[in-house]
Amino acid sequence: MNRIASVTKMYLRDKLSWIYMPWIILLLNLIIHLTIRFSIGGKDGMYTGGITSLYVYMLVIGMVALPQTFVFALGMGVRRKDYFAGTAMNFALISLSTSILILLFSLLEGWSGGWGVGLHFFRMPYWGDGTVIGQVTRNFVLLLHLFFLGFAISSVQRRYGWFGMIVFSGVISAVVSVLVISLNYYQWWGILFQWIAGITVSEWAGWLFALIVVYALASYAMLRKATV
Fold this sequence. Notes:
82% helix, two-stranded parallel sheet
């Protein structure tokens, strides 16, 4: 347990990347949107989608976490399973704290009438509906999903090298292309959209959690055999 905690602390020593930078980017984005909103005026509610910059950042940092720390941690005598557990714990802590902050900012946004100009920045329609616990849980799952997705992509490169990444990207592109062609050929787009519209937000969170398990198992399996 001490080794796992040490790995988590190793990440959190880089406070700029893991704690400050995502919120610096997000708040700068908020200031830009507020400036635009003040300049154009208007009283109707406006959903910006600006919070997606935070989600993109979490995906990216999930991708860079492995190449920045894996070799160093193993060089310090950390076992691979402890490294993975400590990394997962760091992802979970950051996801939980970020989810709580998003909730607090969304509540402040609601109390202030959208920062006084009807701007909806932190609260997304559909995904941000429901109880307080539900909002925190869904954002926690979404953030954790993005972390592990980025980590799984980096694990492919660590295990199989850049050639493996090229093959992996090619396979994903081929699968997506076949799906798009099939949807066009059989005219299934309407059915697909109806199916998506029928999925509840809780069900989406459940699917994302299932993917987290897949990413975690795949990443761990690849890291066990990855060269240093």
